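Subject: sequence -> structure tokens, single chain

Hey, anyone have a minute? Need the predicted structure for the following. Not urgent.
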Amino acid sequence: MNQSDDLVRINVSHSNLKAKFIELRFDKHMLIEDVYVKCCHNCGGGSADTVVLNLLDPNGNFVAQLDDMNKKLGFYAPENGFGIHVLDSDPNSLSAGGWLEDVSLVKKFELTDEEYDKREGTVRKWMQSKKAKDPTWTLEKEMMRRRDPTWEPPVPKPENYQQDEAGIVEMGGRCEVNPGGRRGEVKFVGKVEGLQPGWWVGVHLDDPASGSSVKDGIVKGVKYFDVPDKFGTFVRPANVVCGNFPNELDELDELGEI
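Reply:
Had a minute. Here:
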């Protein structure tokens, strides 16, 4: 049975949680305000007043901030395997301080490793049997293959991924970044230690509201280009179009003076 074209499976993560919530299903016709409700209800609590939702591609790269409550999810063109990361700023959130995951905060029944190893039918024994059959086994692989027996992990990108596309990106030139039509100036072209293998383009965005999780040109403590905080982003070369793209914010200022 084929999945409806209107449904998309998205991995949802939460800034307060280590666990990854696999494959929540969303209707592309859902309003963003309903996406907030579903994410907060299923993944750590919060509300539209205290959380921000960032849409990520299958490699974890920033695509867009879901901040227009009146738009539908389909406007941002999500695909199966995309992610939504919930950034929760509420110090009183249900998930704050590890209360949903940190079992050390709760008094519990204690059992030594030796006593636990003697038991049959435990999760540890089950995981050990799985890894004995497949040394690369993971819980994520198990869950995905229960849904689709033919599922395989994404193949890592090669080191020369999008090298040709990077070769036509003009350093210092104006550009437009898609999806979303975000405009800015090319500040870096090359490989970035700490991101996925392959080539990347660092862009100084005109509008800080359209930034990414890497907002200051720094990855793993290494500065790749100078940019004010919240104005920077790294994107794949294929998503960058160079050309005469004026700063729309300047154009709006000019219109305001007329």
